[in-house]
Structure formats: C-alpha cells, structure tokens
Design goal:
This protein is of the alpha/beta class. It is built from 22 helices and 17 strands.
Amino acid sequence: MKITKIDINTLKEISNVIRRDILISTYTAGSGHPTTCLSAVELLVSLFFNYLVFDNENFGSIHQDEFILSKGHAAPLLYSIYKHTKIIDEDLNNLRKYKSLLEGHPSVRLKGVKYATGSLGQGLSIALGAAWSRKYKNLPSKVYVLVGDGELAEGSIYESANLASFYKLSNLCVIADINRLGQSGPTMFEHNLIEYQKRFEAFGFNVILIENGHDFNLINQAFELFINEYSKTNKPTIILAKTYKGKGVSFLEDKLDWHGKPITKKEELELALKEIPNPNINPSDFINYKSYSVLNGITSIELKINEIENKLESFIKDFYLKNKDKNIATREAFGRGLEFLGSLINNLVVIDGDVKNSTYTLYFEKEFKDRFIQSYIAEQSMVGFMLGLSKNGFIPVASTFGAFLTRAYDFIRMMNYSQPELVILCGTHAGVSIGEDGPSQMALEDISMFKPLFNTTIIYPSDAISTLKLLFNVFIDYLKGNLRGVVYFRTSRPATSIIYDYNHNFKIGENTIIKETNSNVKKIGIISAGVVLHEAIKACEKLEKSENISFRLIDFHTIKPIKNIEELIKDVENFIVFEEHSKDGGIGESIAPLIVNKVKYFEIIGVDSIPVSGSPKDLLNYFKLDSDSIYLKIKSLKSII
C-alpha cells in the first residue's frame, strides 16, 4: 500500500493544535493529566495522520488498523486526535464533566474506544488478542498500542511480551513513550533506552530506538521501518521513543510534581499557550483515510440457531445414555461441551493457562488446534488476550484453576468495563473437595470475586448434565440476544454421579428444586450446589428414611442472576445453605438479602477458616459439609420448626 505523507511542517502545526486542546480542555475540567498527554503528541499525530489505516466510519474494524491506548490517563490526547480525525464530534471542553462521553479515562461509551483502559499494564495483553485475530484471519491490518514507561514496571507487560514473541505477532507494534517521569518521581530507568532495548530484545522483539520522540523525521522513519520491513518478520516490534513529559511548555517540561495536575490559573494557561503557536489550520483538512485492498471474510457462525439447538440436544441425550451410570467431574463435562461446541461455532476460541489436562480443554485442542491458545502460566495476559479476541469477532473461553483467576482480577474487572459481547471464564477446582493439594489450589473466594462485577453471570453446576445444559444455554441465549458479557463457570475436581435426566429443562437464573417431601407440615429449605449438593442429597435420603422432617432441596446452579427466588422459598420459613466457598461472599450471602426478611431462620454453613491438606472426605467433614454432618445439622433444627 502506497503511503501519502503529510509534510513535516503541517504535522508540527497539527501538533500545536493538539497541544492547545490538551491544555485548554484539562484547564476547563480542572483535572486530568496534561503533561502525560504532551509527551506523546508527535507519536500519535504521525501515526494517525500518516500511517494508521482507518476511516472514521468503521474505526476499530478488524479490517483496519487498531490503536489501543494502554496509558489511559492520556485520554485528552486521544480525544483531541479523535476529534480532528472525525472519529468523534464531541466538544473537548466537556472533558470529565458529568455524563460527558469524554471521561477521565477512555470508556467504551465513546465511539472509537473498544477497550476501557487506565489501569496500567493491560493494553499489551489486549493487543495480543487483537493481533492474533488478524493473523488467524490472514488480514493485513496491524495493531498499535501506546504504553507509558511507568507501566513498563508491570509484570503483565512482560507476560504479554513473552506471548507476543511466542506467537510471532509481527503485526503488532508497541509504541513506548519513554518520558522519564512517573507519578511520584522518575521511572526506574528514566531515559536509558538501552535498558529497555535489552529487555525487549531478550523477549524476541524487533526494537526501534528514537532518540528524540518529538522529531517527525525520526518518528516517520520508525513507523515506515515497522510497516515496510519488521511487520514482515516473525517478531513483534517495539518503538522506544525518548520524550519529555509536558513537552512544549517550559514550566511543565520534564518537571516533577505535575503528574495528574492541570494548569489551574488563567494567567498560567495564557503563558503556556503563548509558547505554542496557534496555527491557522484545521487538522481535519489533512486527513488521509486509508484502506487495505484485500478484505478476507470474517469467521462467523454459519448454522441457524434452531439447528444448533437441535444438535446440542442430541449431543446431551447421547452423552447421558452413554454415561448415566458413570461418575464424571463437572470440569470434564465442561471440556467435552467445549469440544462439541467447537464443531458448531467456528469463531469459538479456547485459551488455557497450562492446565489443559486438568481443565479438560485438551479435548478442544485435539479437534481444533488452530483455535486453541496456550497462554501458559500467565493469567493476567490470558484475560487481556481474550478481551482482544472478543472485540475482534471471536467468542473466547478461558480455563484455569478458579484460585488462579484471583491473580487476574483487575484484568477481569477492566474487561467487564469494556463490555465484551461474550467471554466465558471457567474456574476449576472449586472448594475444599479438591483434597490433598491444599488451600493454595482451592477456589474459595471466586464467587465473591465475580459477584460484584456489573451484569456478570455466575454458574455453578453440580453434575455433567447440568454443566452441559447450562454451558449450551449460555451460547443459545447469547445467539438469541438474551445474554452477553462476562460469564463465570465454577466447576469441581471430583467425579460425581449424574443427577439429572437429559430432558431436564434448565434456564439460567432459575434454580432447581430437585427433591421435596410431599407434606403440608413446615419444611426446612436446604440450598447447595456442586459437590456438596451430592452430600446434601445423601443426607436428605437418610432424613426421609429415619426422621419425620420435611424438606425442600434446591440446586443453586445459577448464583447470578437469581430470577425465581419467590418460587424457591414459597411456603418455606427456614433455610440453611451448605457451600464449599468462604462463608463471606458465596452462595449464602448472594441469597441472604433476597430472603432474610421473608423467612424466620437462615444460616450459612461454609468454609470459615483456612483449610489444610487432607482427603476430600476429611475436609468436607471438617467443615461440616459431608452428608453425615448435613444430616445431623438438619436433624438439630427439628426443634425450631
């Protein structure tokens, strides 16, 4: 593709317009990070006005180049660039105002912003997914991500650099704004580009050094080297640009104690603007929208929804008939379900954190190796990776031990703010029933981790059939437009018996009464899920035989949303929850606000102290979650009803 460049004098004038925008908008807002923005002006002006392949109508399309602002506090710079390239038409003086789309850090509410950024160290991991998607579809479009030197201290950056090199993402260009100053003082290596160079070369990157990151000749040369040469290698590229924080204003440039501080005095603003000529140009007049000549087809779901439903129902029936007398772990059933879904949904991609033989994603890998991504033990990058995939036409599913997802919580939080179409996280090895491996491997806080995230779905199946049904329902509901966003599946290690018939009708959010005595006397409501539900079933069978106690046993397979609570608690005044999760923030605390004012008695039996190693049987007994303990607990409540 032939590049028609804007002359350097015009680029300088455009930069002056951008700088003035940054100073005025942050002054008007009374807050923001102008000095952070000023250091990267030339880098983005060169990129957007000379090299980035895009148009304002389809900005962010996988057929165009993608830009990710990892240093999200440089939002005023991004907004000015977007304004003058006609991606947005917002009034820049509305920066940070209540309900303005120009938020303090980029939000997906604004056109042109695909990813919520601002929590540092995440943009590169997102770029992995964006670049991998283009490479998978054999598209010529490229991915650029602007990172700050402060966030180059984040370990997640190097996790992602490792993966970018391993997957030979030569369509990825990292632009590092090495402006020397962090929030509270100088960065680790200040302006020592060689230190950064050594690190990224060690990770397998092409490295381009720009000794003056405000010199358009050098910047243009760097982008042309990437586009014309390095993007054709098997390596990702990083441009290390020496810049100055606050560039263009003498009393801000390379000065400490200005991070996150706008000019607040009118006379100071006037002094600053005097140093930046006010060119008589409109940058929009110099836009040169570009496009790639070859557009490959986008991977999509080709079957009709009813065809997919029929095939899924047939699969579950066959699975049930073959396995109804076997014990199967929900983690394995989840893996089998993914394998079958892969044959129906050709934009399904599975990512695993080097535990595929425990999460059973190896079934999917065996059949669809080209759509299986090994993130290795890099959970933060795994989550960022899947967000980039989600925003570029794929449905990603990521699996690892539920306990290890806690390491990636900030990435999950920010992914949720990015409002992906559908991403599924499967956390295996829930609770103490994993046994001898001990508490470091036990997911005991995962429900409380996902529950506060807005609009998430949390599913905790108890047997193989409910796992398959609920997993398939997620996809069907998504295809019908009834579900989107972040979905968390909590699965268990032990193999358990099959509870449900293949004809059982599951609905996400509508939990199931699986056993109830036919009595008009007052009942005890028993709520559980996962492995402990099987223990509760045994306890209830014993109660039926030996005690005159009426009960209602509920499988609480959907922790969020909860849609049928009134039906579940009808005519029952006493409830007890048994769960292998911390008592804080688990199933019980999800239910409590909904029913405590409607029932007489409510208690949670869960994990209330740090576990130790032991057999699943011993650990369930220790926390009073085995069938004998459940039986005795319910028996002891006979007096209250």
